[in-house]
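User: quick one, sequence for these tokens?
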């Protein structure tokens, strides 16, 4: 198996996990199906806020990760073990908190306020939501580390990074892109997808965090053993 394919297979599951964001999907569907004028423009504002924030996280994360001693080594290292173990532990903590928290009402105050919010506010909400999304960041940072840690060439790393970025943003960009291209025909489908996920979003989020948390902690512990 080539190094590029191996890197792709390492990053893809993390990207899919980072993309799972029922709240972002719900906010975008609320905005796009709102009777208020300019729904598509406001939907893109929400998406733009999230993408700009993720770009900032990406560039900051890549810069910090590139300064680690395991940069481009491809070998097991303590930084790798620490990053994966901490990310997995963070996901398990999120799962524990969610399991103990009372289920929130389906139509929270935030959801009711974003429907007709102005683009600047939606941009800020999109950026803030991304920056405080512990589940997404706990999977995105290890994926970035896998890219910087790899020995593949720059072009391959760039392609894998673009894949990671695009998949991570699918929950917020996908709906508005669909409505932009297909118009109102896409809205019933988006509403149906949102309703199907929303019924089980809490359980899905908990089990996503538990599953990825256990795997990441396991990988981190294995790397610790390999290095030691």
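Assistant:
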């Amino acid at each position: 198996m080539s190094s590029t394919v191996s890197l792709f297979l390492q990053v893809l599951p993390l990207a899919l996990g980072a993309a799972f964001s029922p709240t972002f999907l719900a906010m975008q569907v609320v905005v796009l199906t709102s009777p208020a004028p300019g729904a598509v423009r406001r939907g893109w504002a929400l998406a733009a806020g999230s993408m700009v924030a993720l770009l900032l996280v990406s560039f900051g994360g890549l810069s910090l990760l590139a300064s680690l001693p395991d940069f481009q080594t491809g070998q097991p290292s303590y930084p790798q073990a620490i990053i994966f173990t901490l990310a997995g532990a963070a996901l398990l903590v999120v799962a524990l908190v969610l399991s103990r928290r009372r289920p929130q009402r389906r139509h929270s105050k935030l959801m009711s306020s974003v429907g007709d919010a102005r683009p600047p506010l939606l941009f800020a909400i999109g950026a803030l939501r991304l920056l405080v999304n512990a589940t997404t960041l706990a999977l995105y940072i290890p994926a970035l580390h896998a890219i910087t840690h790899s020995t593949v060439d720059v072009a391959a790393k760039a392609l894998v990074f673009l894949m990671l970025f695009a998949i991570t943003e699918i929950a917020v960009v996908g709906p508005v892109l669909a409505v932009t291209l297909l118009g109102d025909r896409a809205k019933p489908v988006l509403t149906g997808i949102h309703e199907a996920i929303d019924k089980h979003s809490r359980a899905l989020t908990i089990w996503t965090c538990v599953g990825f948390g256990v795997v990441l902690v396991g990988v981190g512990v294995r790397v610790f053993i390999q290095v030691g």
